[in-house]
Amino acid sequence: MTASSPRGPLTDGPRDPEHDPRASWALEPDYVGRLTGRVVATPGAQPTHEVRSPLDEAPLAHVPQSTPQDVERALARARRVQEAWSRTSVAERSRMMLRFHDLVLDRQDEITELVCLESGKARKDAFLEVAHVAMTARYYARTSASHLATRRVPGMFPGLTRVDVNRIPKGVVGIISPWNYPFTLALCDGLPALMAGNAVVAKPDSQTTLTALLGAQLLEEAGFPADLWQVVAGQGAEVGTPLIAGIDYLCFTGSTATGKVIAQQCAERLIGCSLELGGKNPMLVLRDAPVERAAEGAVRGAFSNSGQLCISMERMYVADQVYDRFVDRFVARTQALALGASTDWEVDMGTLISARQLEAVTAHVEDAVAKGARVLTGGKARPDLGPYYYEPTVLEGVTPDMACFGTETFGPVVSLYRFHDEADAVARANQGSYGLNASVYTSDGTRGRELARQLKAGTVNVNEPYGAAFGTLAAPMGGMRESGLGRRQGQEGILRYTETQSVGTQRGLPIRPPAGMSEEAYAKMMTVSLRLLNKLGRA
To answer: Taking the CB of the first residue and of the last residue of the chain, which one, N or C, has fewer CB atoms within 10 A?
Structure first.
């Protein structure tokens, strides 16, 4: 499938392929200027960064780069606006968030187009980002009041001691987001931070800065104060380090290696952080699994967003009893995918995002094949479809000496393994140091949930690759082991951005011996009281 003309007001139409065969898309200069003007950057202080579309390498924008001084300026502005924002009622914050929800849905064509141009993903995958951001906004708009409400707990002396537990905003939250889900991951972690009363300074990946800037613009259009959400741009070493040096909490999504470095930087300042990192996610197809449904889920789990999804499936363990039938259906469904680098709805799988990503995927497959793995389908780059395009690939016979066995590929490559014993399958699924997501296919949902408790993964989906858990905003999402720290979504997703404050109010007698009572007598009286409270079943 070849690229077609883009739609929507942000593009000026396809270029003439006879004069410039590389460049099929372009963004209107005024549109680019409005977005890039939101970057906190000193004009001319640093060279701009050129963003090219992975669809065809067409230049999209030159993004100003922030200096460390620009980051400090953004942080200072964020602190000023956060003081007033923290005094804004949760009800008013919710009203703005619901306006943002509607704006995202109203502007979905613009958002999906820009996501496709910057990331190269299929349009249907880009729309899922729109949906997820809207769902996140609505969830926290509707639930933040209860999540953040002051909670009263039993006091030390019933009737005499009152204790209230408050949730106080951290202050300024830093968001460092990756390129693979440029709208979702640039925004969804920061929305609960705003609802909790914080300001946000965000540093998106250099490849997908425009999408993040559009999100910041929509927030301001929805009524959020200027400077409450600011965007800095640049490389991590130059911009990320001063950002971490000045914030009160950090949320990072990216590689495990980078996450470890960031965790050390946060530890030096004794600030909290949440880290969603790498994964080598397993799918278990049990002997009673509905084969057709499992094959459909396997295709989505492995090849959505060209496999550039932290919770995608890269290892599939299939019971002997259904292995051959499953493989036949999985391979057939994979071969039926509509491939292409395009913004059209008809494309099932888009392109990889960069030459670097293409090299990494190619190296994994070539290494596996050289050491004896078999390619059941795919297995090669497709420059005829796009400069970084790689076919959806299914491997069999992958062994521990191959790079793709235990190392995250982060591309459209999946390995198949037979198993006979379910306990062995669980043990193999738990191999390695990751623990982000897992999937179990079975006709017995109860059995699937029982196996889920044995899997070392922060989310497990039964009869679904990832959507059931990730799409449920009330459910926390995050990794175990080297797949990360902390959780996004649900109550944990907003409370991470708050400090817990306990306020104790003592009525009547002070907590000390009454006048004239010795410390020894007071200790005996306390002992009697403690025994009585225990008999009464009090905590």
So the answer is: C
